[in-house]
Queue: 3 jobs
Job 1
Amino acid sequence: MKGRILGLDPGERRVGVAVSDVTRTIASPVEYIDRDVGGHDQRLTDLCTEWEITEIVVGLPVSLDGSEGEAAERARSYGERVRSLTGFAVEYHDERFTTVTAEHALLEGGMKRKARTSMRDQVAASVMLQGHLDRRRYAAGERNDEDA
């Protein structure tokens, strides 16, 4: 299947947003949606239209031992809301360490604290979505030379 995948990393205050390319190979950060400001639902549906989304992946915060707690329940509830709102199937992907990975990448890039704060959620969404894309490609037997 082809078409762009929308990656959402829901947090308490913001939802990081990332989008795949049409070949579902590369994830890119797009923006974050502030949950405290109105218009979340409209922005989400607008993003689906703008990017011609065909599928949605929501980050699932699981514990180090793989168990799901309250945060995972909130993410699943959010995913159900997104599914109802958009009509797209929603998959979940383990988002452990995505925020840490995003923060390290932004620090290595020399980004100042204020700029990192506004970028962190969308970069974390991109890291999560890239993991989802890579896992799918690997499961389908599509490896590039670097994977061998």
Job 2
Amino acid sequence: MPHPLPFRRPALAGAVLATAGALLLTGCGGGGQAAADDPVKDVRSKLPKAQRSAGVLRIGMDVNYAPVEFRGPDGKPTGLDPELAAALGKILDVRIEFVDTTFDKLIPNLQGKQYDVAMSALSDIRQRREGLDENGKPTAAAVDFVDYFIAGTSIVVPKGNPKGIKTLDDLCGKTVALQQGTTQDEIITRQVAVCARTGRQLTTHKLDSDAKALAEVASGAAAAGVNDFPVAAYAAKTTDGGNRFEVTGAQSTSNPYGIAVRKSDTELRDALAKAVDQLIRGGEYDKILAKWNVSAGAAQNAVVNGGI
């Protein structure tokens, strides 16, 4: 989501997972063993008075990114993030309220206090943590992250991969579709320059949703699309019974998904880190990831600002 770009990005492979994954193995967002006899009660005691008194945690989310977050048959948010958020709400003993927000507005609206946190496949990256725009200039949108998952970028092509695309370099001379303001937007912007040096122009179609980008791949308007691995894998498996798309090549650019919190809300940030740790220790975290077939992106503990 914008620099702090709304980068969204489940499962990572091999070395791609290693760098960011190590951050979630070695960092420590929630501390060690809970001090009290009842660790859940201890976590709840850390939640700021504002949320405890209201009995609700309001979460900004772009509910349009299956399987990470999307609307189920009943119209309610479902997917990886909504289920993890609901589980965190049970630990913290608050009701979870989702505020559907377009991806590029997630962090600006968080700063505008339209909700307490943003949780929507947001990659924890330096630009967002330091409040930098795409040109490296400071903005007012710096946030902290509570990291809870690792994800990477994948290339989606029509079934059968008629253009033989396997790498980013194979996109040179072709058209690629993507959602604007995402991690993939930044990756392809860099690749445009790489392709230009080879004399084979990479044309980019930037859309306001991932669904529109995939539609361009389906129609042939774009040779490929780029998006988070979980989303790419889900689209390949479910669209037209698995006969429309396939994921090609290896994943790249792994980074943690994080819950974005205003820099000033350190108490809430630390309470969420403890709640994520408790969710992982209690086993519910693994069950939710397994349900959505993204277990390879699992973190072993929460980390505050552990992204690259």
Job 3
Amino acid sequence: MKIIRTVLGDIPNREMGITDAHDHIIRSGGPEVWRDSSFLMDDTDAAKREFRKFLEAGGKTMICMDPIGCGRNVVKMLEAAEEFRDMGNIVMTTGFQKGSNYCPNTSFLATVDADRIAEMMILEITEGMDLHSYNGPVVERTKAKAGVIKAGTSYRVITRLEQKALKVAAITQKETGCAISMHTDFGTMAVEILDILKEYGAGLEKVVLCHMQRNPDRYYYERILDAGATICFDEPNKPQYRPDIEIAENIKWLIERGYQKQIVLGMDGGRREALGAYMGETGLANGLEYLLTRFVPLLRKIGISDEAIDCVLVKNPSEVFAINV
């Protein structure tokens, strides 16, 4: 049986529905917030309004990618998920972001043996996430379990600390069957990520490489997909990086070459200005529903079939994020 591990419990993977494969609706602190206050998204009511708009647009499941040490808030995410029980699903993550978000000398990622850290990640998936996201000596397990593993790498380099996090992710995947969803900095180092994960025994068919639209090299995409991984195109509505049409045309090019089953989509809102519910008092802004109200219609407009769109929004997430039980 294949299941999706949501924060409210396991569901059959066939019930996952239309999925935003990489997003953020609550971030309560962490290094990104210290560097830029627009990363702070700590309003549970705003998160509920944002998720509601996604559901009203036809969405069903959101993969929320805030990991340990980067503002993950289990209590607030549980409250948001409970509001929409039987209407929509939230999946949370365990693991790490890129290395610059952790002290290379004193963080537990740096000082604890990789096998011991993997045990901590495995428990978050099999027993419940720590209320405090492992930010101190007290561990209090919640009823909410993580359903995906995160790791991250830097721009054009994979630091020693990040290589250790990749080892942890691979061990955790082998023990739990969870997918690994990767932060890639501007789409770099993807091939090297896959090489390292494979070396440590990870199944590449359960690896999702995110932010790849920032490196719009179609032949690079082919190399990644030929290795068996999945690409997440997750930045519509961010024209400072790429216009929507360029992302859409690259997706179409890959579909035409037979990679339809290895693509998923997300928004990666990330900052307050990308979530209309957070910006309501400031002014009008598009929210995460943009994926379904604006980007998917663009895919149709350039000739991508409804069958292919259903594949990238429903079928592919339900396979790559599924756990065999």
